[in-house]
C-alpha cells in the first residue's frame, strides 16, 4: 500500500498491523511536491511491487490532475485491483477508529457521531442488565477473598470510590476494588501505567484480570454506566484533555462503560496523545454501534482478561 501525505501520523502498532495485511507500506510526501512529481513517484511505486491501496493522507487538497490519474487506474487492466481512499475512510474501514479533525477543519464529521437511538439503547440495556446481574453475583463471591488479599498487602478500604464524568458531562461516584496503596495521589493526580509503583502486588493482578472493575456493575445497574462504552475519567483529566484534544467532550454523549472499544484496542494512556488515540476508538464505537460490535468488544475483553494483559 501507499500512503500519500502526513496528515495523520500512524502509530508503530498500526504500521505493524498494516504490514501484516498489505505487505509493504510506502510513504510519499505531499508537501512541496507538484502533481507531476507525485504522479511519477506513484507510478514507480506501483510498478515496483504489489500495491493494492493508495491512501490520501494529505493536509491540502489533492491536485485535479493527480485525482484524474488515480481515478483512471481502475480502467487500466494491470492496475484495476488498486483502490484509493481518503485517510478518514481508511481509518474507519481498516483500523476501526475515527479521524479527529484539527481546529474545526471539518465539523461535518460530528453529524455522524450521535447517541444511540431508542432501539439501540434498549438492546444495550438488556445486555447491561443480563451481564451485570451475573457480575453482581460474582462481586458477592469475590469481595471476601479480595478483602483478605488487600488486608494482607495494603490494609485499608476494600472499595475505591471516586467521582467520574459520565453522560452529559455529569459526575457520578464510580466504584472499584482498591488496587493502589492508600493515599496513592497525595502528591497529585498522575496517569496510570502498566508498571505503576503505586499499585500493590494483588492490585496489579486485579488490574490485569479486570477484577478491580467488577464493582462497577453497581454503577451499570444504577443506570450511570453501560457494560461497554468510553472509559469514565476524572474531572481533572477531562479539563486537561479538553484543552489538548479537539471534540474530546463528544465521548460524553453516551454513558461510559466498564470496558470499551478503546480499552480493548489501545493500552494504558500515559499522555494526551494516548488519550486522543483512545478517543478515536470511542468515536468509532459510538458512530458504528451495532449488536455485533458489542459482542466483538465483549470477546476481545475476555481475550485480554485470559491473557492477563490488562486494559
UniProtKB/TrEMBL annotation:
Protein name in UniProt: Sugar transferase
Keywords attached to this entry: Transferase
A GO term, aspect molecular function: phosphotransferase activity, for other substituted phosphate groups
Keyword Plastid (UniProt): no
A Pfam family hit: Bac_transf
Bacterial sugar transferase domain span: 124-306
Alphabetical list of InterPro entries matching this protein: Bact_transf
Organism: Campylobacter concisus
Family: Belongs to the bacterial sugar transferase family.
Amino acid at each position: 500500500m501507499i500512503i500519500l501525505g502526513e496528515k495523520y501520523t500512524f502509530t508503530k502498532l498500526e504500521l505493524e498491523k498494516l504490514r501484516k495485511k498489505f505487505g509493504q507500506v510506502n510513504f510519499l510526501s505531499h508537501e512541496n511536491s507538484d502533481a507531476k512529481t507525485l504522479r511519477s513517484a506513484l507510478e514507480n511505486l506501483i510498478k515496483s511491487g504489489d500495491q493494492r491501496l493508495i491512501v490520501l493522507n494529505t493536509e491540502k487538497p489533492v491536485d485535479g490532475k493527480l485525482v484524474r490519474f488515480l481515478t483512471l487506474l481502475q480502467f487500466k487492466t494491470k492496475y484495476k485491483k488498486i483502490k484509493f481512499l481518503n485517510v478518514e475512510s481508511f481509518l474507519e474501514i481498516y483500523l476501526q477508529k475515527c479521524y479527529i479533525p484539527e481546529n474545526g477543519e471539518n465539523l461535518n464529521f460530528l453529524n455522524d457521531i450521535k447517541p444511540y437511538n431508542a432501539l439501540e439503547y434498549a438492546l444495550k440495556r438488556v445486555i447491561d442488565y443480563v451481564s451485570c446481574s451475573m457480575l453482581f453475583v460474582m462481586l458477592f463471591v469475590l469481595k471476601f477473598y479480595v478483602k483478605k488479599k488487600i488486608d494482607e498487602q495494603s490494609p485499608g478500604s476494600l472499595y475505591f470510590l471516586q467521582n467520574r464524568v459520565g453522560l452529559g458531562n455529569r459526575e457520578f461516584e464510580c466504584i472499584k476494588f482498591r488496587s493502589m496503596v492508600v493515599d496513592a495521589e497525595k502528591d497529585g493526580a498522575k496517569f496510570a501505567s502498566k508498571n505503576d509503583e503505586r499499585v500493590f502486588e494483588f492490585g496489579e493482578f486485579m488490574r490485569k484480570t479486570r477484577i478491580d472493575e467488577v464493582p462497577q456493575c453497581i454503577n451499570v445497574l444504577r443506570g450511570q454506566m453501560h457494560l461497554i462504552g468510553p472509559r469514565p475519567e476524572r474531572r481533572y483529566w477531562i479539563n486537561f484533555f479538553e484543552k489538548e484534544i479537539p471534540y474530546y467532550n463528544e465521548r460524553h454523549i453516551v454513558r461510559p462503560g466498564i470496558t470499551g472499544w478503546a480499552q480493548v484496542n489501545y493500552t494504558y494512556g500515559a499522555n494526551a496523545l494516548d488519550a486522543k488515540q483512545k478517543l478515536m476508538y470511542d468515536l468509532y464505537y459510538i458512530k458504528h454501534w451495532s449488536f455485533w460490535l458489542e459482542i466483538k468488544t465483549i470477546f476481545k475483553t475476555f481475550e485480554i482478561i485470559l491473557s492477563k494483559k490488562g486494559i
